[in-house]
Structure formats: structure tokens, C-alpha cells
Design a protein that fits this description.
heterodimer; A: 280 residues; alpha+beta; 2 domains; five-stranded antiparallel β-sheet; 6 helices; B: 689 residues; Gyrase A, domain 2; 3 domains; eight-stranded mixed β-sheet; five-stranded mixed β-sheet; globular
């Protein structure tokens, strides 16, 4: 687990640099347009990966069988046994198609999951606006019945503490309500039992990466929140989360962006596939 | 407003992460399942309505039928005498079983005994005077040039000219010149479904209740009846040969580059053909790699490739799609690559080769690409020595295999109705390997004495019949195994035009004997001429553009005179062996509205003789008789009495002299459908199983 988490963490660091660089020009575009462009590129990339990681000949044969059976249903439509047999064969071949798609799916899952994590930074939530408030949640390590350590959020020009810290020992969580004060990519610094820990804070009104959580060494959290260095297992802090507001947009808002990404990348892939000679 | 810290932050897209990666898998399968379910539901739920409509419309379908299904397996050219010989020798157990338990009879063919004529009579149940097909070729009444007798293909009527561009407006005009109505159309009108595969003279396909794939006379992508290509580093004597083209190529190190010639550019009036560049890199004596279009193919010596898709780009994003096979014949010392005629791609046909159109796509998806060319077995390549014997045999076997797949699929799909499938390999292999079984043939070679191509062919067909019979057992199916004609040897060609010239009926301009297609004939002094494989035409005023013979009494007298003189023509250098048995007057032989289109006279040759190769293409040579040294050594274009076909059946048929044209009426009768009065054929009496 530790090795894998560290590997993902390392890949995230590379991805952050690379994606930040590649996505820089996109920041001048509206979110919907940049997402459309990213989805189109992703669609083509997936298509190429699919082509070279799948058994194209077998997929071609299965697809031909499906089409043949669909046509058989039309050509011999008055012969009900033929229609039913063809239908059964189509279902069988559809299942085979799924089986043949497993290999490329397995190959694609890791890189594309990491990529989705990166995209989530940009399209999942919007940064805080100046004067807007949000809740910061710090999850502390579970150390039995020990009392919560002394924790404070150091003052900065980026945000001021409105409420907190509020301690919930039963959950080993500490909450602050903060108010953003200045546009930019800032860092919140916490003093935890003599140790300083940091969490990024995004304030602004344009398209910028928003890291909602600085995670611990959990695989899923690392995939979903790639922007910041994860906390060590030995650290007394296990995660810090900022409750950024949802993006309120038709196509790029919270949880909608992934649907948009899916639809556009699929559409582009289907449009481009004849030119790249890919069978899917 | 403070967001609930428990849910705020952390996008809830864990499962979503996998959505996109798995998208292709799910989408592909989903579309397939969705289409299947939708189509299936539609089929199932609309079935009662369709059943009701069909029941009302065709309430008498199958009501009087004595069979549930009729399967007709056409083995083009199967000869009754050879079949009998092999059966007697115990080599054809299934056909022998049919002979003993069902029926075996010689099946009277048409005059002339040629596939286009005979299969036309089979499908329409009428004599040629009613279906208008008398030969592969007929003459153009204006130019005297030979033209295909069964199909007329013309470009779109209107063209939009923009500079050098010619943009066709509308579809090409493709007409079937065969008249009459196939009996499966009549079956369809009575609610009986048919599957008709590769029956000759069915192009373009006609609409009816059923599916069909056209056979003989479907052109290749270049519009010809089959034009092979041979790419060679040798310098051939001539580049243009009958049925194909030689292409001289240069070898640059191990690489050969060349262009495959396709159809004429439809957008340019200059008639330049479209081409595809390809390159071959020789690996060693037995292998090479080829790049054509986006395909990279490994060529192995003496092995055909699969069908390769070739797309000819015609501009404006238009592609003319074809398929062909490649055969690497040698890499050293000379490179030689044979390419089959470019067939119309059945998956996306540029011309209709099936009814309905999607039936071609269905077959292509079901079994992969397959030959669509009418005369798919490239006997011209063998004749012109562009293909070795083994290469030709292999080609025939592969084509038969394709045919079998579609035939057995149709047997699975059509449980009630008619299934017809014609296999051509029997005809082509007997044409080309009769020299093996005729020791006196000019092309006979003792080196091949151990070879049994024709015997193996008959055994293979016996096995095909066995497998077909298995599919017919126990479901009230009637099986008929038929051929359109038999076979005999073809040792000498008779130049009818030379005979006409010697007898004062034909004159040449400046004694020019080089020109083909009757271009050297002096029409002002010519009263009769021959073209095609059996016909002599009179040069009649008002019918032919430069006619000189009065259509009335003079023409009648001339017909009689030529027929009398030509009958009994003897081969002077062969102990005066008679070459022609009878000469038939078409006006007396045929009846029907189209008999005027027939050749005026039809020569019925004795076995061993046939119209010469030169006569077929309208060339006049210096002698009447020519040794036939070509691989095409067997033939059936002789007097019909010598080459009847076969009729085998799994049921007893009470008829002494069944005729090919009786089969359509017999099938109609078996399904309880009234035989139309215009049919010349009569239903044969079939016993119950």
C-alpha cells in the first residue's frame, strides 16, 4: 500500500507540473470551452490507446457478427426463430465485446484516473471569491483516547478566521470557518503541536486549479486529490479539506463536468475513429 | 451559509473515474444491445400484425403446397456421362444414393447449350425466344461490335461539366436485358420466400419476396467481365492480353513499386483510370511484404492473400471501393505478382449485386469479403499463362468455399420456401482441365497423367451434396441437384467467318485479318457474319446499319442455303471428321416476342469442335479449323443433344426426358402455385417422399 501510494504521489507530482503547464493557456478561456478542448484531445488520446491496447481483429469480427445478425433480423423478419436466434447472438456478441474491451480498459484505468484527478482540480469546484466564506476541516490521526493536540491557524493576508477552531474530539476533527480576503493562490499554515502543516487556498474569479483536500496516504484520496503533497502516515494530521463552493454552470459545474467530458470525448472518438481506423 | 463539512469538498466521483476509461467498452456493447433489443422487440411485436397481413394477402401460400422447402443446388456444367462413370466406380456415394433412391436423369438443355441461355430458361421456364438471351454476346446493330447480351450498363444520363470536371447527376442506368419473369418472383407473389444465390443472368437483381445475390455477368470494378493484372519484371511480348493486363515493373534493390489500375475516373471526361500505388519489399525467395493504401500485407509465394480492400479515391471524398486478392508467384530471378480482377466490394457495393441491397452487406459481415464478379474464376489468366494450373485450382476451391458458406447459411435461414445456389467451379474446372482426361487433346500433357482434377471436383461436389442432403432430411424438403449443360472436349475451333468468306458470304477490306470485332469486314459485300460462340447473323437491310440482304424471301433463302451448306461441315485435315451436326434456323426454333433478336442461324457442333476463339470476338483468320492449344480445353457450346445437364433428386420424378425449363413450373406446382400460361416448361410429376 505504502509503495503504491508513494508511486501515485510521485506520478501526481509529475502530473501536476505537466498538466499545470499544458493547461496554462486554457486559463484565459471560459471553463466550458477549455473543457470541450480538453475532452476532444482526451477522446482522441483514448482512441489511440484503445487501438493499440485492444485486439482490434477480434473486436472487428465481433462487430461484424453483431451487424450481420442485426441485418438478418431485417432480411428474415418473417421467420421468428431466425429473429430470436439472431437476437440471442447479438446479446452474446455484445458480451464478447465487453470482454474484448477489458484489456484496454485495464490499461487505461490508471493513467486516465490520474488525469481525471487533475481535471477535477480545474472543473469540480470554483475558487473562493473575496469575502466569501468556507469551512476548513482538519482530520487528525486517530491516537486512541489521547486528547486533541493544540492546533491553530496562523493569521495571513489570504483569509481570516471567522469562526473556530471548533473541536469535535469524537471525530478527531477541527473546523474553522474562514473568509477569503485576497485573490491568488495562497497557503494556509496551521500550527499543530509545534509542527507546521500547510494547505493550499485558491481565491479568485477565473479558471484556476482548486485543491479541495490535502490528503493522507489513501489511494483513492491520492487519485482524487493530486495537487498537494500527502500527509505521512506518521503525521498527526491526516487531511485538511476546504469546502469550496460548487461550480454553478450548465456544462462545467460540480459533477456535471465529468458527464460533459464523457459525452464530448466519446463523441469526438466516434467521429475520429474512421480516420484513425479504430474498431470500438 | 456554511456548507455541511461532511459533504462539502471532495468531489463524489469515485465511480465516475472509471466511466470514461470504460466508456468505449460500455458504449460499444450498449449500442449493440440496444439495437438488438429494439430490433428484436419490433420484430416480435409487429410479427402478429405482419402475420395477419401476410395471412390475408397470401392466404393460399403453402395451402396447397406438397413440400415445405425446395432446395436447388446448381452445379454448373456437371456432365451426366462423367457423373454416371464416377458413380459406377463408387466414387460418388451420395449422388449414387440419389440415383438409386430418388432420381437421376439427363436434363435437356437449351439451344445453344450455354450457361446464360440455359440458366435464363431455368429461371423463367420459357424458351429463349421469350427471354431474349441467346449467347454471352450479341452484336450492336449499329456498329456490329460485340456487346454483352444480358446487361446494359450506361453512365448517368446527365452530367454537369465544370471545366475539366464531369459531375454525374443521378445514378448509372443498369438494365437487365433478360426478359420474362423468374419463377421465384411468382412464388413471392404467392407469399413464398426465396433465397437465390449466384444464378447466372440475374444482374441487376430484381425485386421479389426474398433475397438474391447476382451471378454470371456481374462486372468487375472496371466494368469488364474480369480483368486480371500481372506485375512482372519480365518484358512480356504484349502488355494487353485477353481478359487481363501485363505490367512491366522495375526492381529497385528489394523494392518494387507499381500502380493497381482501377475504374475510370467518374469525374473526368478524359477517361483516365483511377489508380492505387503499392510497393512490395521482397524478403526472401518465398515472402514479401506489400503496402497498399493503409494495409500492410505479407505475401507468401503461391498463396493467395485474403480479399484485400482497395479504395480508389475519385476526389470530393468519393471512394470507389473494391476488393482483390494477390498471388506472389516468384521473387527471383524475376518478380511476378498476379492480382485478381478487382471485384465490387460487397460490404459497400458501388453497383447493386444483391436484392435487397443490404443483403450483400449482410453476407460480407457474416462471412467476410467474397467474390462478386460474375465470372469469378479467372480462366483467362490461366489461358494466358498468367496463372499456373495450381493457382487456378486453388482459386476455384476458395471461391467454392465462399459459396458454400452463403449456401448453408441460406439453408439455415430459409426453413420454408425456395433455396437456389449455383456453384460455378464445376464449369470452370471442366473447361480448363478437360485436357487431362482427353489424351488426344492438343493441349494434353502426359506429365499430368497422375492428376485427377475433374474426378476430385466431382468427389468434392458429391460431398457438398451429402452435406446439403443432411440439411434437408426430415423437414419435407425436396432437393434437386441440377446442371445447365454437360461437357465435352474442345480440340478444334471453327472459324465460321472464314467459312463464310470462303463461301462468298463475307468479304474483308484489303484482306485485313488482324482486326477484331468485325472492324475489317466490308459490309457492302457481306451477307452473313458470325460473332459469339454459336450464332451467324445475316446482314439484313433495316436491321443492321449497313445491311444488304432483303428481310423477306432473300433472307429466308439465305438462311436455308447457309444452313444446308454448313451442316455436315467436315474437317479436311482430320479424315473429314464431321464438325457440325446441325445448323438451326432461329425463327423456326424459337417462339416468342424476342426471337427476332436471336442470331439467324445457330451452329450445333459435334464433340471436339466449337466456334473458334477468333470467331467469338469477330476476327477473320486464314483457315477454318484451328487447333485449340489453350488450357480451356473442354466445352459445351456444341450441339445441345451431346451435352445435356443432370437432374438428381431425393424424390422420384416420373419423366423420361425432363428439360431445364420444366424445373421452374415443377417448383411452382410443388408449392401449389398455378403455373403461368406463358411458360413453355411443364411441371414434372414428383412422387411423395
Amino acid at each position: 500500500m505504502g509503495m503504491l501510494a508513494r508511486l501515485i504521489s510521485w506520478l501526481n507530482a509529475v502530473g501536476n507540473g505537466l498538466f499545470g503547464l499544458l493547461n496554462k493557456p486554457m486559463t484565459v478561456l471560459p471553463a466550458w470551452l477549455s473543457l470541450t478542448l480538453v475532452s476532444a484531445v482526451l477522446g482522441v488520446l483514448m482512441l489511440i490507446l484503445f487501438k493499440y491496447t485492444s485486439n482490434q481483429a477480434a473486436i472487428g469480427r465481433v462487430r461484424d457478427a453483431i451487424k450481420a445478425n442485426l441485418l438478418a433480423m431485417k432480411l428474415f423478419k418473417d421467420n421468428i426463430p431466425v429473429v430470436l436466434k439472431s437476437q440471442a447472438k447479438i446479446l452474446l456478441n455484445a458480451f464478447l465485446l465487453l470482454v474484448f474491451s477489458l484489456q484496454p480498459m485495464l490499461v487505461m484505468i490508471i493513467p486516465f484516473s490520474l488525469l481525471l484527478g487533475q481535471l477535477g482540480l480545474w472543473y469540480q469546484s470554483r475558487p473562493l471569491e473575496v469575502d466569501e466564506q468556507a469551512v476548513v476541516t482538519m482530520q487528525l490521526a486517530d491516537s486512541g483516547t489521547n486528547p486533541l493536540p493544540s492546533v491553530s491557524l496562523l493569521p495571513s493576508g489570504a483569509a481570516r478566521v471567522v469562526v473556530g477552531p471548533i473541536r469535535v474530539p469524537s471525530k478527531r476533527q477541527i473546523y474553522w470557518q474562514i473568509q477569503a480576503r485576497e485573490n491568488g493562490e495562497h497557503t494556509l499554515i496551521f500550527q499543530v503541536a509545534g509542527e507546521q502543516v500547510r494547505k493550499e487556498l485558491a481565491v479568485g474569479d477565473g479558471l484556476m486549479p482548486v485543491s479541495m483536500t490535502r490528503p493522507g496516504l489513501s489511494i483513492m484520496d491520492l487519485v482524487l486529490h493530486p495537487a498537494e503533497k500527502p500527509f505521512d502516515e506518521s503525521s498527526s494530521v491526516q487531511s485538511i479539506r476546504i469546502g469550496y463552493p460548487d461550480r454553478r454552470a450548465k456544462f462545467t459545474g460540480t459533477d456535471i463536468w465529468i458527464v460533459t467530458l464523457f459525452v464530448i470525448s466519446m463523441l469526438i472518438a466516434f467521429l475520429v475513429k474512421p480516420f484513425l481506423n479504430v474498431k470500438i | 451559509m456554511v456548507a455541511d463539512p461532511a459533504v462539502a469538498g471532495g468531489f463524489q466521483s469515485g465511480p465516475c473515474v472509471y466511466r470514461t476509461g470504460a466508456g468505449f467498452a460500455v458504449m460499444g456493447s450498449f449500442l449493440a444491445i440496444f439495437s438488438a433489443v429494439l430490433a428484436g422487440l419490433l420484430a416480435v411485436f409487429t410479427w402478429p400484425i405482419r402475420y395477419l397481413i401476410r395471412s390475408i394477402r397470401y392466404r393460399r401460400a403453402f395451402a396447397k403446397a406438397r413440400i415445405k422447402r425446395c432446395v436447388i443446388l446448381g452445379l454448373d456444367g456437371m456432365d451426366p456421362k462423367l457423373a454416371e462413370k464416377f458413380m459406377d466406380e463408387g466414387k460418388l456415394p451420395t449422388l449414387d444414393k440419389l440415383r438409386k433412391q430418388g432420381t437421376f436423369r439427363p436434363l435437356a438443355t437449351t439451344i445453344p447449350s450455354m450457361s446464360p441461355v440455359a440458366w435464363s430458361s431455368f429461371q423463367t421456364g420459357v424458351n429463349p425466344g421469350k427471354h431474349n438471351i441467346y449467347d454471352f454476346l450479341t452484336r450492336d446493330k449499329q456498329t456490329y461490335a460485340p456487346k454483352l447480351s444480358s446487361t446494359d450498363i450506361r453512365g448517368p444520363r446527365r452530367m454537369l461539366k465544370i471545366g475539366s470536371l464531369n459531375l454525374p447527376i443521378g445514378k448509372p442506368d443498369i438494365r437487365l436485358l433478360r426478359k420474362g419473369k423468374p419463377f421465384w418472383v411468382t412464388l413471392g407473389e404467392n407469399g413464398i420466400f426465396s433465397s437465390i444465390l449466384r444464378v447466372p443472368i440475374t444482374f441487376p437483381p430484381e425485386k421479389f419476396y426474398g433475397v438474391s445475390l447476382s451471378g454470371m455477368c456481374v462486372p468487375d470494378l472496371r466494368g469488364s467481365q474480369g480483368m486480371f493484372s500481372l506485375f512482372t519484371t519480365q518484358s512480356p511480348d504484349q502488355m494487353e492480353v485477353t481478359g487481363g493486363q501485363y505490367h512491366h515493373v522495375q526492381r529497385n534493390g528489394n523494392t518494387i513499386t507499381a500502380e493497381l489500375i482501377g475504374p475510370d475516373d467518374p469525374f473526368h471526361a478524359d477517361g483516365k483510370p483511377l489508380t492505387i500505388k503499392f510497393s512490395v519489399i521482397v524478403q526472401d525467395d518465398a515472402t514479401a511484404t506489400m503496402k497498399i493504401g493503409s494495409e500492410k500485407i505479407t505475401l507468401k509465394k503461391d498463396e493467395y492473400t485474403d480479399w484485400i480492400k482497395v479504395d480508389f479515391k475519385a476526389g470530393f471524398g468519393v471512394k470507389v471501393k473494391g476488393i482483390c486478392k494477390f498471388l506472389l508467384q516468384s521473387t527471383a530471378p524475376d518478380f511476378q505478382l498476379y492480382v485478381t480482377p478487382i471485384n465490387i466490394d460487397p460490404e459497400k457495393p458501388v453497383m447493386p449485386v444483391t436484392h435487397p441491397l443490404v443483403f450483400a452487406t449482410y453476407l460480407a459481415k457474416k462471412q467476410g469479403s467474397f467474390a462478386t464478379l460474375g465470372l469469378a474464376e479467372d480462366s483467362w489468366a490461366l489461358n494466358e499463362k498468367a496463372l499456373p494450373d495450381e493457382g487456378f485450382i486453388q482459386q476455384c476451391l476458395e471461391l467454392d468455399e465462399e459459396r458454400e458458406k452463403m449456401f448453408f447459411d441460406s439453408l439455415d435461414k430459409v426453413s420454408k420456401g425456395l433455396c437456389v445456389c449455383v456453384f460455378d467451379g464445376t464449369d470452370r474446372l471442366q473447361h480448363t482441365f478437360w485436357r487431362d482426361i482427353d489424351a488426344d487433346h492438343p493441349a494434353h500433357d502426359d506429365a499430368f497423367d497422375g492428376r485427377h482434377v475433374i474426378e476430385d471436383l466431382y468427389k468434392r461436389m458429391d460431398d457438398l451434396v451429402a452435406r446439403t442432403l443432411k440439411k434437408c432430411n426430415g423437414d419435407n424438403s425436396m432437393l434437386m441437384v441440377i446442371s445447365d449443360h454437360g461437357f465435352n472436349t474442345f480440340r478444334y475451333g471453327v472459324d465460321l467467318n472464314r467459312w463464310l468468306e470462303e463461301n462468298g458470304y463475307l468479304a474483308l477490306k484489303d484482306n485485313d485479318r488482324e482486326g477484331k470485332y468485325l472492324t475489317t469486314v466490308d459490309w457492302s459485300k457481306t451477307r452473313a457474319f458470325a460473332i459469339g460462340l454459336s450464332g451467324i447473323f445475316l446482314n439484313i437491310k433495316g436491321r443492321e446499319s449497313q445491311g444488304i440482304v432483303d428481310p423477306g424471301d432473300e433472307a429466308d433463302r439465305l438462311r436455308t442455303e447457309i444452313a444446308e451448306k454448313l451442316s455436315g461441315l467436315a474437317h479436311d485435315t482430320q479424315q473429314n471428321t464431321p464438325a457440325i451436326k446441325s445448323v438451326y434456323n432461329a425463327l423456326k426454333l424459337y417462339n416468342g416476342p424476342y426471337k427476332q433478336n436471336a442470331p439467324d442461324l445457330l451452329a450445333g457442333y459435334y464433340p471436339g469442335y466449337r466456334a473458334s476463339w477468333e470467331t467469338a470476338v469477330g476476327q477473320v483468320t486464314e483457315s477454318v479449323f484451328h487447333k485449340n492449344t489453350k488450357a480451356w480445353s473442354g466445352d459445351h457450346c456444341i450441339d445441345a443433344s451431346f451435352v445435356p445437364g443432370v437432374l438428381f433428386s431425393n424424390r422420384k420424378i416420373e419423366a423420361e426426358n425432363p428439360r431445364l425449363m420444366d424445373l421452374g413450373p415443377t417448383v411452382l406446382d410443388l408449392f401449389g402455385v398455378n403455373v403461368p400460361g406463358y411458360m413453355d416448361g411443364k411441371p414434372l410429376e414428383v412422387m411423395s417422399s
